[in-house]
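A further point concerns the way the authors explain their paired sequence and structure data. Since the whole study asks how a given chain folds, the encoding of that fold should be made plain. A single example would do more here than another paragraph of explanation. An entry of this sort, consisting of the sequence and the corresponding backbone structure tokens, reads as follows:

_____
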Amino acid sequence: MKKIPAGKFKANCLAIMDEVQAKHEAVIITKRGKPVAKLVPVALDEDDIFGFLAGKGKVTGDIVSPLPPEDWGDLKWSL
């Protein structure tokens, strides 16, 4: 993994971003020799949270009609 000082990153930010995208290799940005940030390429197909549970559930009965009161179990409450 490549390490770049913050000053050099600031001066060449767009070029470094293009390089990260092209090579799919992360870059660590340092300040006074200590790592402070990491620039990583985006992987859209892995980060998408929408639909990640698709096909995992199963409907086993009527989901529209309410349950009769005798099937409420612990959910019963009195007025």
In short: The mean pLDDT is 86. The beta strands are 2-5, 27-31, 34-39.
